[in-house]
Every structure is written in structure tokens, then in C-alpha cells.
């Protein structure tokens, strides 16, 4: 597990690319310039770790494209100490970005293989989520609700109601919604009973699977 001067140089280039693509939040860019993304990927893909692309992480899943991670995190408006729920732990890269931003992170993954691998891996890099859960993201995490933010890192065919219900007033749900292509939706809870909805362009994610799949 090595992070070299060369890797750091590549990360700085990636940050420049993300800035050009419109990412402005300095904490998000700082997190991306700090986290050794190559260590989150299968060894065969290490050379591709710092291009702005998604890559396979095993179990038919992908580590999201850096731009997507950056954009979703920016839209979530994470502040230090915020309680955040992530759906789709995967490689743990997005989890690490949230932890770099000093959030308190809960994350749910439905693939046992990935769940176990990432649970062992993150602490090796010094990343300590509050809780990693092996379970179904469609139901959220009622026992720890409400959250300042919920981020879904897989394409949802619809917006699961429990995720809206588990937001604090003022909290945000960032969720890509759609089948082949997803539209990034941001819901802000404006009161106990009302939400404001905004849309932020097209993205492509692996599907948020329901238990029957
Ligand atoms: N945040 C991850 C992205 C991984 S891809 C990263 O940075 O690497 C999306 C992940 O969502 C996959 O690991 C997939 O197994 C998981 N997933 C799919 N459906 C899910 C569900 N219903 N509940 C929880 N996780 C789910």
C-alpha cells in the first residue's frame, strides 16, 4: 500500500480537471487531492486511478467517476460534524471523501463481499466511518435517523420514501434517479412535511438493486 510523489502529482492534475469541469468547493477538491484513489482499485487498474473515469471494483460494481463523486459531494453541502448516510459503500472511496470533510459517516452496502472487503480496508488508511452496514439501502437507517445528508451512489429507479423521511429539516438527499441514464435529483427538506426538489443533469450509475434482484 504505497502512495508516492508520482501519485500525488497525478491527483493534482485530476483536481485541475475537476476544477475545469466546474467543481468549486475547496473542501471537496482538498479531499480528492488527499485520498490515494489508486489504493481503492484492483491492482490491474492502478494506472487508471487518476483519470476522470469509473472503474470496476469486483462483484460487478464500479468505483464512481471522480467528477461524479465531487459533484454529488458538492451538492450534498457537507459541513464539519454533519451526520451523513451513504447508500452503496462499494470501494469506500466516497466514504473516504466524506470522512476527509469531517462528516460522521454511516454507509450501507448490499454486496457482502464488498462490504467485508471495504470494512477491513478503510481503517488501514486511517478512515473510520461511524458505522458500515451490510443491508438494503432502500430502507435507509431508521435507528440512526435523522441525517443532515443522504447520498445515494447507485442509480435509483424511484426515490425511496424512507430516505426522505430520515432527513433533518434543512437536510439534503442527493440521488441519481432513472434506469439507463439517471438525473441527479437533490431534495431539501424545508419542513416536517415539505421538500424542495432540484435537478442537476445526467449521470450513469450501476443500479440500486432491490432485494428481489
Ligand atoms: N460509493 C461507491 C460507489 C459504488 S457503486 C464508491 O465510491 O466506490 C454502487 C454500490 O451500490 C455498489 O457497491 C452496489 O453493490 C451498491 N448497492 C446497489 N444496490 C444497493 C442497495 N439496495 N443497498 C445498498 N447498496 C446497494
Automatic annotation (TrEMBL):
Gene3D superfamilies: Vaccinia Virus protein VP39
Entry EC no(s): 2.1.1.77
Name of the top EC class for this enzyme: transferase
Pfam families: PCMT
GO cellular component: cytoplasm
SUPFAM superfamilies: S-adenosyl-L-methionine-dependent methyltransferases
InterPro entries attached to this UniProt entry: PCMT (IPR000682), SAM-dependent_MTases_sf (IPR029063)
Catalytic-site annotation from UniProt: 64
Keyword Iron-sulfur: no
Keyword Transcription regulation appears in the UniProt entry: no
Example GO biological process: methylation
Molecular function terms, GO-annotated: protein-L-isoaspartate (D-aspartate) O-methyltransferase activity
Recorded coiled-coil stretches: none
Catalytic activity: [protein]-L-isoaspartate + S-adenosyl-L-methionine = [protein]-L-isoaspartate alpha-methyl ester + S-adenosyl-L-homocysteine
Localization annotation: Cytoplasm
Keywords from the named record: Cytoplasm, Methyltransferase, S-adenosyl-L-methionine, Transferase
Function (record text): Catalyzes the methyl esterification of L-isoaspartyl residues in peptides and proteins that result from spontaneous decomposition of normal L-aspartyl and L-asparaginyl residues. It plays a role in the repair and/or degradation of damaged proteins.
Stored HAMAP family: PIMT (MF_00090)
Stated family: Belongs to the methyltransferase superfamily. L-isoaspartyl/D-aspartyl protein methyltransferase family.
Protein name as catalogued: Protein-L-isoaspartate O-methyltransferase
Species, as recorded: Ulvibacter antarcticus
Amino acid at each position: 500500500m504505497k502512495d508516492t510523489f508520482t501519485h500525488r502529482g497525478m491527483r493534482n492534475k485530476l483536481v485541475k480537471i475537476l476544477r475545469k469541469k466546474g467543481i468549486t468547493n475547496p473542501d471537496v477538491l482538498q479531499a480528492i487531492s488527499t485520498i490515494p484513489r489508486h489504493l481503492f482499485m484492483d491492482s490491474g487498474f492502478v494506472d487508471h486511478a487518476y483519470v476522470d473515469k469509473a472503474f470496476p471494483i469486483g462483484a460487478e460494481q464500479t468505483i464512481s467517476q471522480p467528477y461524479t463523486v465531487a459533484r454529488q459531494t458538492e451538492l450534498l453541502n457537507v459541513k464539519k460534524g454533519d451526520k451523513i448516510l451513504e447508500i452503496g459503500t462499494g470501494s469506500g472511496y466516497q466514504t473516504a471523501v466524506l470522512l476527509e470533510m469531517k462528516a460522521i459517516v454511516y454507509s450501507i452496502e448490499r454486496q457482502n463481499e464488498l462490504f467485508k472487503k471495504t470494512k477491513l480496508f478503510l481503517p488501514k488508511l486511517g478512515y473510520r466511518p461511524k458505522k458500515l452496514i451490510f443491508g438494503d439501502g432502500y430502507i435507509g437507517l431508521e435507528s440512526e435517523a435523522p441525517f443532515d445528508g443522504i447520498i445515494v451512489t447507485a442509480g435509483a429507479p424511484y426515490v425511496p420514501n424512507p430516505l426522505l423521511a430520515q432527513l433533518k429539516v434543512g437536510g439534503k438527499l442527493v440521488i441519481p434517479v432513472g434506469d439507463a441514464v439517471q438525473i441527479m435529483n437533490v431534495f431539501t427538506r424545508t419542513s416536517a412535511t415539505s421538500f424542495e426538489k432540484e435537478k442537476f443533469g445526467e449521470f450513469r450509475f450501476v443500479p440500486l438493486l432491490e432485494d428481489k434482484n
